[in-house]
Design goal:
This protein has 3 domains: 107 residues, Winged helix-like DNA-binding domain superfamily/Winged helix DNA-binding domain (Arc Repressor Mutant, subunit A, Orthogonal Bundle); 191 residues, Vaccinia Virus protein VP39 (Rossmann fold, 3-Layer(aba) Sandwich), CATH 3.40.50; 73 residues, no CATH class. The chain contains 14 helices and 16 strands. A 7-stranded mixed beta sheet has the order 6-5-4-7-8-10-9, with helices on both faces. Strand 2 and strand 3 form a beta hairpin. The chain is globular.
């Protein structure tokens, strides 16, 4: 399976190298240069050029240090026009042949290929998503959650996996022009009980009070501003203890790895004007929207950021049942624990007390800030109540 997928998408890597060679990009990278310097020299669009440069780093042709790029030893030998081993003329010839190969269908068949409609598009995505959805559902534990909204859920592969694994009530939000294709795929799979809501999640109301929101392979379609809007709307749509699951081709903060994510950024530039985004970018948007305590998860072919929404009720006394972990968000420089929490003696109480005294609230950057935190698991057989009270310094 993976070999077929890799071969089917191999043209992307070829075209990245061919375009760079066609514009003599490597001639300008014998010394370190920034994107803006290169864009000015080559009369290129800076944002698009940066995506090309990052993809070339991912492919091993150039290197990146900070915000500056330079040739790898291989590129200096074979891709710089002044080198005696220069292969650029052959690559430029191959680039001109790329357009000819795009006409292969017409040379062989009397009829053109069918245009891809919405159903074909979702089936194409589902052929891969259906095989990877179980991995995501296993990686993100939604035990105890009752409802999930899948924004732009497409074929429903991921909503199905979560709904079946955790017995959730799942809602897929799709555009009106796509929703009929979603329903058709669910019908073909014999899946009932998943609601399909026709709405534009950037503009329309898609409901309130969900326990979890899934954003799978969506952010790369959107601009930075659109993603900020999306996460604010998700925050408002979630219950007080809700979670958001962002699943995508997420980049390292260098933006040059993983390889597939760096290359896919150029694919999205051409498809929707979007791109792939880094761990820090995703977490920053979530933080701006109000989410707390992020978790990064590596999957075999993709990555996940989980953000949690905690309701800041300073005077409440949540119950700590067996297997549960209470959370609280407070603004204070010091904290005191009510003595009722320490009535139980023994090792577990000592563990909690040790954890509490280690909280970094006394001074420094955390003083006066809002922080989310978790105590260690307290698997008591009976409910245990506690309160955390802010004390002014």
């Amino acid at each position: 399976m993976e070999r077929i997928i890799e071969l089917g998408a191999a043209y992307r890597e070829s075209k990245i190298l061919l375009v760079a060679a066609a514009y003599n990009l490597f001639d300008y990278l014998e010394e370190p240069r920034s994107t803006l310097e290169l864009a000015k020299t080559l009369k290129a669009e800076p944002r698009a050029l940066e995506l090309l440069l990052n993809a070339l780093v991912a492919l091993g042709f150039i290197e990146k240090t900070g915000d500056r790029y330079r040739n790898s030893p291989e590129a200096s030998r074979y891709l710089v026009s002044s080198s005696s081993d220069y292969l650029g003329y052959w690559l430029k010839h191959a680039n001109r042949g790329f357009a000819k190969w795009a006409k292969l269908e017409k040379a062989i068949f009397a009829e053109p290929c069918e245009e891809e409609d919405r159903l074909d598009f979702l089936l194409a995505l589902d052929s891969i998503a259906a095989k990877r959805a179980d991995e995501l559902a296993r990686a993100v534990n939604l035990e105890g959650k009752r409802s999930l909204v899948d924004l732009g859920g497409g074929s429903g592969a991921y909503a199905i996996a979560f709904a079946q694994r955790y017995r959730l009530a799942a809602t897929i939000v799709e555009l009106p022009e796509t929703a009929s294709a979603t329903r058709e795929i669910l019908k073909r799979k014999g899946v009932a009980g998943i609601r399909v809501l026709e709405a534009d999640f950037l503009r329309d109301d898609f409901g309130k009070g969900y326990d979890a929101a899934l954003v799978s392979n969506i952010i790369h379609f959107l601009s930075e501003a659109q993603n900020r809007t999306l996460f604010r709307r998700i925050y408002d749509a979630l219950a007080d203890d809700g979670v958001v699951i962002v699943h995508d081709y997420i980049l390292d903060d260098s933006r040059v790895a993983p390889r597939e994510a760096a290359i896919f950024a150029l694919h999205m530039l051409l498809s929707s004007g979007g791109r792939t985004y880094s761990w820090s970018e995703v977490e920053a948007w979530l933080r701006e929207a109000g989410f707390k305590r992020f978790e990064r998860i590596e999957l075999s072919e993709s990555r996940v950021v989980v953000g949690r929404k905690y309701y800041a009720n300073l005077r409440s006394s949540p119950s700590c049942a067996k297997g549960k972990q209470p959370a609280s968000s407070l603004t204070a420089t010091t904290l005191s624990l009510s003595t009722s929490m320490l009535r139980r003696r023994g090792e577990r109480s000592s563990l909690f007390g040790t954890w509490l005294t280690s909280l970094p609230y006394a001074s420094g950057e955390n003083a006066g800030s809002t922080t989310s935190f978790f105590p260690p698991a307290l698997p008591y057989k009976k409910h245990l109540t506690f309160s955390l009270t802010p004390i002014s310094s």
